[in-house]
Amino acid sequence: MRKILLVVAVLSLASFAPALRGQVRAPLFEENFTGDNSVNGQTAPTQSQLAARGWKDGITSVGTGYKFLLDPTLKKQVMYAHWTNASSERTEPDGTASGWKKFFPASRDVTLYAVVKFHNVANSPNGAHWHRFFNWPGAGDFSPGNADGQIDLDVSGRDKYSTHYDPNTHQTFPDPQSWRGFLLYSGGSLSYSNPGKNDTYTDDIWYELVWYVKAQTSGTSPTTASNGAMRVYLRPIGTTAWANVFDGNNFAVSKRTDPISMWMIGPYMDRWTSDIRHYYSRAVVWSGDAYTDGTLAAFLGNAPTPDPTPTPVNCVVSDWSAWSAWAAITSTTESRTRTRTVVTQPANGGAACPALSETETRAIQTPTPTPTPVNCVQSAWSITSQNSATVTISRTVTTTPKNGGKACGVSRIAIPIPPLGIGG
């Protein structure tokens, strides 16, 4: 059941004027909720001025459902939605009003910078306000109710959900009985919050808020990994330390996979408490991740930006060593091993290290013996024939050479007989 509705109020003090404006990527839109749309305007905008700036829906009730006042802290005009006598779920504020919406060129991921203040929201008995990005290309000028494509950043009072999913583990966790914090709602089956990140705001304090969301390209189940992401950072205005109040990666942020093309301000609210208010002063939306690419820091005049998500570092290992000598491990098998070492340890969710050793096993190889050389052996010489001219001697082979042994010598020799001399 739909329970959370959030409106994010937006503001900027003079001290946050963009000192480095020339270095800032142009936003998709910027709204200061003043007559001339200036950062420090003293005059409230008219219906026609808001319409001329591209706001749709609810403009005809700008003077009743939405109100304006000169804020004593900010010393500028701010806008707020106000309830005094709501009696049912999704009741509109005083007068008639619906959600304001602003269309912009479609982007796969977007960043909102806003400053927001809540009044009687933190202690409402299940109350919440909301604002919404839409990745529903067919959204018309009139504010739809809950619909596929809504990506709601909700701020809850003591709210109670029937089901919460952890966006990082894709598992449900016990229903909080006193949840007061920031959540993502995209229909009854896509309700996310971070365990341990509740109780993250206080009523009647101006906050700066950064909301980054990336629409997934596939998958719409809360229980399986996808490639959507959402991060929300919050800090009291005038301070420098950002608190991470929602952090989710690799999950489905919406029931659609289209790029994001619209931002919408509520005024809806559930389970009211008397005199609930939600104030706005400024809203700036960029395509892409404006807080990690330096755009937000430059926009705020080099004010500190939320810590970017650390870059994953993959494990790096050395080349394999040479194989060790084969060693017997049983009477019939032997093995050898090679190893490698870690050069760079993985960090920030980078790829884990592969195996650092590898072993091969085989049957024991029995070496073939090298044969012994056998030298040739021959008998003694003997006279085998004789005539008046020659004497022939010979010998026989008694042992034949093999395996590379010494070869045999000649086996027969004819020796000439010199002639005898005549005379004395």
CATH fold title of the largest domain: Jelly Rolls
**Number of DSSP E strands:** 26
Beta content: 25-35%
CATH superfamily of the largest domain: Exo-inulinase, domain 1
Query: What structural class is derived from the secondary structure elements?
Result: mainly beta
Integer count of domains: 3
Q: What's the helical proportion of residues?
A: under 10%
Calculate the terminal CA-CA distance, rounded to whole Å: 151 Å
**Element-by-element helix/strand order:** EHEEEEEEEEEEEEEEEHEEEEEEEEEE
Give the CATH class of the largest domain: Mainly Beta
Number of helices: 2
- Unreliable parts: 1-22
Task: Summarize the biggest pleated sheet.
Answer: 8 strands, antiparallel
How much is the average pLDDT? 81
So what's the overall shape?
rod-shaped
Radius of gyration: 44 Å
Q: Label the CATH architecture of the largest domain.
A: Sandwich
Structure characterization notes:
This protein has 424 residues and is mainly beta. The chain is 3% helix and 34% strand. The protein folds into 3 domains: 14-299, Jelly Rolls (Sandwich), CATH 2.60.120.560; 316-363, TSP-1 type 1 repeat (Single Sheet); 377-416, no CATH class. The protein has helices at residues 47-52, 295-299, and strands at 29-31, 66-71, 76-83, 100-107, 109-119, 128-134, 150-156, 164-165, 172-173, 182-185, 191-192, 207-214, 228-236, 243-251, 260-265, 276-287, 316-317, 327-328, 333-339, 342-344, 357-363, 377-378, 382-386, 390-394, 397-399, 412-416. The longest helix has 6 residues, at 47-52. Residues 1-22 have low confidence and may be disordered.
